[in-house]
Each structure stands twice: as C-alpha cells, then as structure tokens.
C-alpha cells in the first residue's frame, strides 16, 4: 500500500501580512471552491495580497482572494475575486468572533496550501502595526542579518 503524502505544499503566501500585522493566532481551515478554481490554485494562480476574512451570519468568508480563471475552464470559470466560504468548526468561529469584536483585531489569510490533496487556508488573527512598529521590525531584521553575516565571516 502506498504511503500518504502528509507534507504541506504551499501554493500562495501573504508575505505582506507579516509586515503589516502582528500575528496573534493561526487556524487551519478548508475553503469552498469550484473545480476550475482548484485547478487554477494548483497551477499557482492564486494571490492573497490585500485579502481578509469576515464573519457574516455565523460563517467565515475570504474576501479579495484573487484566483485567476483556469485557462481551459471556458464557461465554468467564476469571478476571480468572489467571496469564498472558509470551513471551520462552530466553536472556532465563535472564538474568532470574540477576537474580531475587539477593536483592532482582524482576520487575515496568510497561506494557501495543500494538505492530503485538499486546499487549505491558514487564517490568522492579527492586529495592525503602526508605522513605528514596522520601522522597528525592519531595524531588528537588519541587525539580525548583520549578526548572521558577521558570524558567517568569523567561521
């Protein structure tokens, strides 16, 4: 019997989210897709930049998640920016609702990946950074890079 591949294969990242937000918690959730969207995502035609999630009527939806139309999809293609339902347990949705009801918290998709041949979204509870926080993060990153460079040269 063949061994199942349980390795996560990242299809799209939202790198800007790490720059613009402090990530508090992450959740793994499924996403409701149409067949041609799955093919397009597997071809790497998804973009999470500027995407966010919102809770409406007890359901979580991903907004502004761009999935380019599948080129062989003809009439079966759907709107690239349509709202896609994210699949979570009710208790997780209630917890997320508690977070987002507080001021400053938002839900941001940070990764789109395959797990056991299913497309999953890594959803983060995030707090927006101020400009000075972003500058501090860049300074820390540069300092860390300098230290690593110095350590590498001393070997």
Q: Write down the secondary-structure element order.
A: EHEHEEEEEHEEH
**CATH T-level topology:** Small Protein B, Chain: A
The main β sheet shows up as: 7 strands, antiparallel
Envelope shape? globular
The structure class reads alpha+beta
The overall strand count is 9
Helix tally equals: 4
Strand content is 35-45%
CATH level-1 class: Mainly Beta
Low-confidence stretches: none
Helical amount among residues, as a percent range? 25-40%
Architecture per CATH nomenclature, i.e. the level-2 architecture = Beta Barrel
CATH level-4 homologous superfamily: Small protein B
CA distance, first residue to last residue: 47 Å
Mean of residue pLDDT? Answer: 86
Number of domains: 1
């Amino acid at each position: 019997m063949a061994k199942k591949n349980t390795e996560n294969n990242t299809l799209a990242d939202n790198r800007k989210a790490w720059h613009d937000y402090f990530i508090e918690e992450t959740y793994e959730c499924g996403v409701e897709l149409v067949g041609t969207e799955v093919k397009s995502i597997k071809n790497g035609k998804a973009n999470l930049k500027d995407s966010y999630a919102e809770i409406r009527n007890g359901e979580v939806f991903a907004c502004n998640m761009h999935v380019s139309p599948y080129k062989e999809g003809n009439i079966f293609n759907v709107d690239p920016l349509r709202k896609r339902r994210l699949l979570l347990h009710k208790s997780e949705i209630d917890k997320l609702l508690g977070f987002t009801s507080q001021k400053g918290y938002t839900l941001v998709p940070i990764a789109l990946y395959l797990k056991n041949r299913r497309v999953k979204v890594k959803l983060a509870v995030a707090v927006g950074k101020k400009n000075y926080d972003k500058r501090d993060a860049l300074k820390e990153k540069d300092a860390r890079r300098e230290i690593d460079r110095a350590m590498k040269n001393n070997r």
